[in-house]
Amino acid sequence: MRPNLLDVEHVNKIFTRGGFVSRRVNHAVNDVSFSLAADKPEVFTIIGESGSGKTTLAGMILNSLSPTSGRIRFRGKDLREIRSRRARLEFMSHVQAIFQNPFDAFNPLKRVDRYLFSAAQRFVECRTSEAAAERADEALHKVGLSLAEVRGRYPHEMSGGQLQRVAIARALVSNPSLIVADEPVSMIDASLRVTVINLFRKLRDEFGVSIIYITHDLATAYYISDRLIIMQKGRVVEGGDARTVLAAPQHPYSIKLRQAVLSVDDAWRDDTFTGGMPATAT
Ligand SMILES: Nc1ncnc2c1ncn2[C@@H]1O[C@H](COP(=O)(O)OP(=O)(O)OP(=O)(O)O)[C@@H](O)[C@H]1O
Ligand SMILES: [Mg+2]
């Protein structure tokens, strides 16, 4: 049988601070388990309030943090076995990250096309600048941009939505099968969010990429998720098919979360999502 794309098995992360006398223990991720199938690309969402352990969990999936206990496997392989530089590079070509603020992900003094070229050289071993440019252009087309549009531009010359799409294009250069996106639209202007969110759908449907979408926003989660888990204080308190969970949450925390978020986000959700793609989306 083909192994799953990802298995998160009883994963814990405990941070300890202080010394012998004033030791503080923070159980940031507490016994979390879920799997993503290999043959069924999906948008899997992790929802939870600030401090619930979402980024810590993402860090472990990206293999930049190691679990205190439990195991994470990518295509059946335990992430702890990834040690050599070569193995790490190989893993990174399959599993890519998108972060909250695209302006933090790019050096303001470096032209954005350089990032795509270096990803092409690093992951796909494009040896000539023509080959790297071709690869960059291909990735940019997947996000609705082109190399001609971004060539020579600096981060501040682009909108947050555009720059986040460039970040996604950079992640796509290596043809990953999983993208971990940690609050990818929370710093982006509301009118541009839907373009980025729709892109995740497209990546799933047209390119077979699975997305782990981390958010505290139920409206976007409802709109694009196939499945989701809701985290509170490091634990998964509810999970399953996204529409079922969000339409009829069972856990008291999920019910409270739904009420709180929907009342705040109603106005935004109504005009952004029921009105289709905003005409100004760039
Ligand atoms: N490197 C660290 N050292 C010690 N504690 C940490 C570290 N990273 C995270 N924590 C703690 O772990 C808990 C979970 O943090 P985490 O960043 O994963 O939450 P989050 O759900 O991503 O929150 P947010 O929505 O604000 O991004 C918090 O209590 C945080 O203070
Ligand atoms: Mg976080």
From TrEMBL:
<dbReference type="InterPro" id="IPR003439">
    <property type="entry name" value="ABC_transporter-like_ATP-bd"/>
</dbReference>
<dbReference type="InterPro" id="IPR003593">
    <property type="entry name" value="AAA+_ATPase"/>
</dbReference>
<dbReference type="InterPro" id="IPR027417">
    <property type="entry name" value="P-loop_NTPase"/>
</dbReference>
<dbReference type="GO" id="GO:0016887">
    <property type="term" value="F:ATP hydrolysis activity"/>
</dbReference>
<comment type="similarity">
    <text>Belongs to the ABC transporter superfamily.</text>
</comment>
<feature type="domain" description="ABC transporter">
    <location>
        <begin position="6"/>
        <end position="258"/>
    </location>
</feature>
<keyword id="KW-0547">Nucleotide-binding</keyword>
<dbReference type="InterPro" id="IPR017871">
    <property type="entry name" value="ABC_transporter-like_CS"/>
</dbReference>
<keyword id="KW-0067">ATP-binding</keyword>
<protein>
    <submittedName>
        <fullName>ATPase component of various ABC-type transport systems with duplicated ATPase domain</fullName>
    </submittedName>
</protein>
<dbReference type="GO" id="GO:0005524">
    <property type="term" value="F:ATP binding"/>
</dbReference>
<dbReference type="Pfam" id="PF00005">
    <property type="entry name" value="ABC_tran"/>
</dbReference>
